[in-house]
Design brief:
Layout (H helix, E strand, L loop, with lengths): L3 E2 L13 H7 L5 H13 L5 E2 L1 H8 L3 H13 L3 E5 L5 E7 L4 H11 L10 H4 L7 E5 L12 H15 L7 H9 L1 H14 L5 H12 L5 H13 L5 H13 L5 H22 L8 H13 L4 H15 L4 H13 L5 H28 L13 H10 L1
Helix pairs in contact: 2-4, 3-4, 9-11, 10-12, 11-12, 13-14, 13-15, 15-16
């Protein structure tokens, strides 16, 4: 295996990290990928031997893990991988991170009327101007093909994004939203809540809440605050909550507070009915509870009754079993506990009737009754006996 020598004429003892990388690339990247990228920046200022295997040892990773990280940053155009005729990795060229927001501003200044591409193209496009710093590397003699996991994940993300029908905002629209005084204050508050700068995709999502869902700044702030309070700092998670609020016609903070309070009360009620403590409900359990309340329209007392009957039948908190009970009640148009009592009474009568029918049928089929019965005139027989 050939060692790789990194060298530079600079005598700087510090490693410079672009603010653009921190603001627009770091937040969305895997933490291990970030560490590898920072290590590359560190290595460019030293004259130490460098190789993929040495980097793998440094971070206690496999060589595939290192290659996966390099492939990721190559797709983000933060570096370029160079290969020889045998498809062996021979060089890494570190590229200057290009700010999508800055480039958008430049484009807007050049032309206000031109049709603008999607913001993501500012990062992923191939026409971006990049300042490069070369790093010469050598790979092991037998190069293993790059892992396709990252490509598969990327393809899945693209497929998922085509299903979600949303407007495609131009850079001009995003910049206008960012520069608006009220929106600027809101975005600053959101960044403080989630603890890191917003990405271009985050800006698009928040703009969607404001533009399409017609959420006020106060409602968006309450949405972020309530999600963070519950331990969820992901904009993607917040987006799911926003869509559910929109479907439930929640338009004010007061509506959201009432909905949130009722939702939490239902969760706690189900946990109490099932005797669950020491943990939160799992995602699929929350989905079932949401189905019982939103789709079926059941109140907590009916759901608690289903949980009670589930425990009596299974001796364990089975959400699937409770779901079967509630689905049956939904089909029977149950709306109150009194309706359940009527349904139970009808079921008992039906069961008793079926039991009697079974008993009669068994008696009719008895072998002692499987012959023609004789008929006697007992008065006539008595007269005959007396005359004799």
């Amino acid at each position: 295996m050939t060692d790789i020598t990194l060298h530079t004429k600079s005598k700087s003892m510090v490693t410079c990290v672009s603010n653009t990388f921190i603001d627009e690339y770091m937040a969305d990247a895997n933490g291990e990928f970030v560490k590898i990228y920072l290590y590359l920046l560190r290595c460019i200022n030293t004259a130490e031997s460098f190789s993929v295997s040495r980097m793998a040892d440094k971070f206690d990773h496999t060589e595939k893990d290192i290659k996966r990280a390099l492939k990721y940053w190559e797709k983000k155009h933060l570096l370029q991988l160079e290969y020889n005729s045998k498809e062996q990795l021979t060089g890494i060229c570190l590229c200057e991170p290009v700010s999508a927001v800055a480039e958008a501003s430049e484009q807007v200044m050049k032309s206000k009327t031109a049709d603008e591409p999607h913001p993501a193209s500012a990062i992923d496009g191939t026409n971006a101007t990049m300042h490069t710093t070369s790093v010469t590397v050598s790979a092991p003699a037998k190069e293993v093909p790059a892992d396709t996991t990252a490509s598969a994940v990327n393809a899945a993300s693209v497929a998922a994004s085509t299903v979600d029908i949303r407007p495609s905002y131009t850079k001009d629209q995003i910049l206008s939203f960012q520069n608006d005084e009220a929106s600027s204050d809101l975005l600053f508050i959101i960044e403080r809540y989630i603890g890191h700068p917003l990405s271009i995709k985050d800006y698009e999502t928040i703009l969607y809440w404001s533009d399409e869902l017609k959420f006020s700044a106060d409602l968006i702030e309450y949405l972020v605050e309530s999600c963070v309070d519950n331990g969820h700092k992901s904009i993607r998670y917040m987006d799911k909550i926003a869509l559910s609020w929109s479907a439930s016609s929640i338009r004010t903070v007061e509506d959201a507070r009432r909905s949130s309070s009722a939702y939490k009360q239902t969760h706690y009620g189900v946990m109490k009915a099932f005797g669950i403590s020491g943990r939160k409900l799992a995602e699929y359990e929350l989905e079932l509870v949401d189905k019982w309340t939103s789709q079926f329209g059941f109140t907590l007392d009916i759901i608690s009754e289903a949980c009670k009957r589930t425990l009596q039948a299974t001796n364990q908190p089975s959400f699937q079993y409770a779901d079967t009970i509630l689905e049956n009640w939904h089909k029977c148009n149950i709306h109150h506990l009194d309706d359940i009592a009527v349904l139970d009474s009808a079921y008992k009568k039906s069961k008793a009737s079926a039991s009697r029918n079974v008993t009669v049928n068994k008696t009719a089929a008895n072998r002692f009754n499987n012959f023609s019965q004789r008929t006697y005139n007992f008065e006539q027989l008595e007269k005959q006996l007396l005359n004799n």
